């Protein structure tokens, strides 16, 4: 399964009552696919506010996204949680709806051992034929999946990639030792190019909602061997990469999308909209 090098972790549009806005979801998907050139979309990931979505909402999002994408891009379903049985059931249901892959986060809050992390992902992989991307994000899960655990998981045939928010040293170690075809994606926009410099494959991005075309150009330029040009493009994009995370994600990116005419609504509690000062800083990023 080829997911491409630029994957957007899509926000979930809400209406004024806080319900999923299906019309705006369709419009946003068209924009991300056709205008920002996303190769794949993650639906109901962290940026999609997965912690506040019910399973019913998630499954409706998966079904809707598959139908609306209509083969224009791959749909990757965020089906991970900190309960293995829950993740197993949600992944099974997502597979029935025709998604192309599942993104599974390291279990949060429970603080499992490396063996527990391995068995969690192994259990989910054993019940589905979907390609699986495991997701290591220590800032949110407290526990970090080690490179050694990732490499063990890479031996499972349908675990095909990792989304890494670990230090560059770990990214390089995984790239060097992983089986052929196993892909490493950066989960941090500002680390996308550095990760690719040590063999990373691409980026699962938030900023691509706004600068996807420029990011894709940067990746292409780098792939063509024009490293200094790619570095310059990365430097120009860095204020956007950093600025979108001054508020808890996806507060800033949803605010920015509303500013440019995509009515994705606000965030659900416990997240809150940006302050006036934060909003001004976000608006400056768009100039």
Q: What does this protein look like?
A:
Pyruvate binds at residues 47, 204. InterPro entries: Aldolase_TIM, DapA, DapA-like, Schiff_base-form_aldolases_CS. The chain has 287 residues and is an alpha/beta fold. It contains twelve helices and eight strands. The protein has an eight-stranded parallel beta barrel, surrounded by five helices. Helix 6 (147-153) runs parallel beside helix 7 (168-177) and helix 9 (208-223) packs antiparallel against helix 10. It is globular and about 45 Å long. It starts with 5 loop residues before the first strand and ends with a helix. The relative contact order is 0.13.
CATH architecture type:
Alpha-Beta Barrel
User: Can you count the beta strands?
Assistant: 8
Radius of gyration: 18 Å
| Span of the ends, CA to CA | 37 Å
Low-confidence stretches: none
**If you consult CATH, what is the topology?**
TIM Barrel
What is the CATH C-level name? Alpha Beta
Structural class: alpha/beta
Task: List the keywords.
alpha/beta
Would you summarize the structure shown here?
With 287 residues, this protein is an alpha/beta fold.
Task: List the topology elements.
Layout: E1 6-9, H1 22-35, E2 40-43, H2 55-69, E3 74-78, H3 84-96, E4 101-105, H4 114-125, E5 132-136, H5 138-141, H6 147-153, E6 159-164, H7 168-177, E7 183-186, H8 192-197, E8 202-205, H9 208-223, H10 227-243, H11 251-259, H12 276-285
Parallel strand pairs: 1-2, 1-8, 2-3, 3-4, 4-5, 5-6, 6-7, 7-8
């Amino acid at each position: 399964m080829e997911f491409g090098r630029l994957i957007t972790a899509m926000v979930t549009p809400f209406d004024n009552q806080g319900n999923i806005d299906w019309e705006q979801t369709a419009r946003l998907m068209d924009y991300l696919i056709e205008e920002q050139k996303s190769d794949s979309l993650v639906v109901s990931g962290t940026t999609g506010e997965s912690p506040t979505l019910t399973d019913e909402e998630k499954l409706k999002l998966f079904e809707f996204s598959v139908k609306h994408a209509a083969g224009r891009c791959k749909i990757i379903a965020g089906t991970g949680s900190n309960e293995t049985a829950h993740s197993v059931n949600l992944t099974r249901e997502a597979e029935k709806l025709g998604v192309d892959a599942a993104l599974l986060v390291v279990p949060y809050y429970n603080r499992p051992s490396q063996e527990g992390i391995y068995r969690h992902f192994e259990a989910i992989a054993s019940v589905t034929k979907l390609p699986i991307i495991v997701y290591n994000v220590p800032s949110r899960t407290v526990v970090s999946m080690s490179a050694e655990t990732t490499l063990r998981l890479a031996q499972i045939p349908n675990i095909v990639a990792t989304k890494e928010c670990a230090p560059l040293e770990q990214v390089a170690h995984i790239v060097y030792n992983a089986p052929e075809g196993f892909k490493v994606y950066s989960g941090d926009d500002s680390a996308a190019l550095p990760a690719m410099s040590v063999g990373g494959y691409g980026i699962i991005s938030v900023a691509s909602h706004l600068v996807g075309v420029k990011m894709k150009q940067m990746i292409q330029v780098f792939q063509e061997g024009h490293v200094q040009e790619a570095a310059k493009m990365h430097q120009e994009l860095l204020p956007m990469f950093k600025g979108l995370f001054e508020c808890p994600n996806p507060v800033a990116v949803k605010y920015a999308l509303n500013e440019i005419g995509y009515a994705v609504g606000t965030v659900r509690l416990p997240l809150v909209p940006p302050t006036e000062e934060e909003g001004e800083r976000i608006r400056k990023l768009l100039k």
